[in-house]
Amino acid sequence: MNNFMEEYKRKLVTVDEAAKVVKSGDWVEYGPVLNCAVDFDEALAKRKDELWDVKIRTAIGPYTHYTIEADPSGEHFVWSSWHQAGQDRKYANSKNLYFCPMNLSELPQMTRQDAIPSDVFVVQTTPMDKHGYFNFGLSSLHAIAAIETAKIVIFEVNDKMPRCLGGNQECAHISQVDYVFESKGKSVAALPAIHPNEVEEKIAGFILERLYNGCCIQLGIGGVPNAVGKMVAQSDLKDLGVHTEMYADAYVDMSKAGKITGACKNIDKYKQVYSFAMGTSEMYDFIDENPGLASYSIDYTNDPAVIAQIDNFVSINAAVEMDLFGQICSESIGTKQISGTGGQLDFVIGAYHSKGGQSFVCLPSTVTIKGNVSSRIKPTITPGGIVTDPRTCTDMVVTEYGIAKIKGQNTWQRAENLINIAHPDFRDELIKEAENMKIWRRSNKRG
User: Fold this and answer.
1) Looking at the domain assignment, is residue 64 inside a domain?
2) Residues 223, 161: one domain?
3) Binding site: which residues?
4) In terms of domains, do 139 and 285 share one?
5) Nearest to 138 by CA among 284, 248, 251, 273
6) What are the angstrom distances between the C-alpha of 87 and each of 34, 90, 91, 175, 439?
């Protein structure tokens, strides 16, 4: 420990000293999700007048983007987001923040192979342990890949960061870092508890009927996945497994209810596997030092080939809209980017190839914007909308009116199945559009 501590002290600097390593024109990568550099970004913003064209990348930046706030013109600092969420959305579709399209499972490979290498990588970590290791805590997405490729590596040490056991690539050694600074000790960003509404509970109810003992469950972000978790916690199901990209509060509910054991998993038996966590502070307390959980890099958790090895895999994700051909949009409203492909497509594909696997993409049948109600199931995706899941991959779609099977169906079967789960007020209009697009047969059921 003494040797490690001596090295630590040699590399220890103030946050302002750390920020001075950045030069004009540099590419700076921040740790993803809750490991995003907070104090460093605040210190870097103070150097605005000294720097030009500094390019910052991160994924799901949940904290205030101080460098953007300091430079509305985008001349000094410009951000790129691997996946837009949280604070990113405040600055999206502007000259301050741009989106990097990708499947989340490929982020480590892209970091090593395709993306412009970072001049500086800064990531929040736990304090160093007696063996000289820093834990990445709430996110293990691609930090090791970023460390391997960056010219300068800086750790922002936060004693409020939960220590999340691995897995793989969930920690790094003092020998792998150039500079260390100790943060102000801000608590990591927490989300309020999600309470599903009536429509989301109806959708979750249809999925619950399809679950059985021993399933391995992946939950995406949103009210429906959360509702499924709460219903499972109150059900008679048992011996469920967890393999997911994001660990959410719903898993805590299921765990505390004794529903999760992982006893039936083909791989990582008895472990709840995830790559990042985001939720309430109570959930962070649950995963801290919890040996029943295992944090992995995103190229493991989201690899469709890994997912397919797990029997009875159930993938549950949310969508913004879809069309009668089976194309799913889960990340934009027209050309306005609101999130990203993330791991949705990875899990849709992986679950389908799992023995006994099921993939559900969920959405309420309607959306109300400025008092106007419209169908989320549309003849075609809104112009400019991004197709997250191509029609060739979509398996099952769920609204509050039921489940539509898409996989293995021809175009008129898809149209019929989807119109039957659309809101009744829009079904006749959708039928007319299907007829115009030549994907409706006279023999099709109406409503």
Assistant:
1) yes
2) no
3) 220-224, 320, 343
4) no
5) 284
6) 12, 6, 7, 33, 41
Q: How far apart are CA 318 and CA 203, in angstroms?
A: 11
- The pLDDT tens digits for 282-336 are 999 999 999 999 999 999 999 999 999 999 999 999 999 999 999 999 999 999 8
Residue 211: phi, psi to the nearest 5? -90, 155
Is the separation of the CB atoms in 35 and 139 below 8 Å? yes
**Per the domain annotation, does 189 fall within a domain?**
no
Both 74 and 152 in one domain: the answer is: yes
CATH number at residue 46: 3.40.1080.10
Could you tell me which of 174, 119, 173 has the C-alpha nearest to residue 146? 119
Say whether pTM exceeds 0.90.
Answer: yes
Task: Tell me if 193 is assigned to some domain.
Answer: no
Establish whether 201 is a catalytic residue.
Answer: no
Of 243, 276, 252, 290, which Cα lies nearest the Cα of 62? 276
Tell how strand 152-157 and strand 120-125 pair up: parallel
Structure tokens at 290: 């919890």
Q: What distance separates the 2 farthest-apart alpha carbons in the chain?
A: 80
Q: Could you identify the residue written with the tokens 């958790």?
A: 301
Distances in Å between the alpha carbon of 402 and those of 202, 324, 392, 434?
9, 16, 21, 20
User: Which of 29, 170, 200, 245 is flagged as catalytic?
Assistant: 245
Relative to beta strand 358-362, strand 336-337 is unpaired
Q: What is the DSSP string of 233-293?
A: HTSS--SBEEB-SEE-HHHHHHHHTT-B--TT-SSSTT-EEESEE-S-HHHHHHHTT-TTE
Q: Which domain holds residue 13?
A: 2-182
- Annotation: binding site for CoA: 220-224, 320, 343
Q: Which two tokens stand for residue 410?
A: 């021809």
Question: In the structure encoding, which two tokens stand for residue 246, read together?
Answer: 């994001």
Distance from C-alpha of 82 to C-alpha of 61, rounded to nearest angstrom: 9
pLDDT in tens, 109-155: 999 999 899 999 999 999 999 999 999 999 999 999 999 999 999 99
Under the banding of pLDDT at 50, 70 and 90, the label for residue 96 is: confident
Residues 408 and 185: their CA atoms lie apart, in Å, by: 53
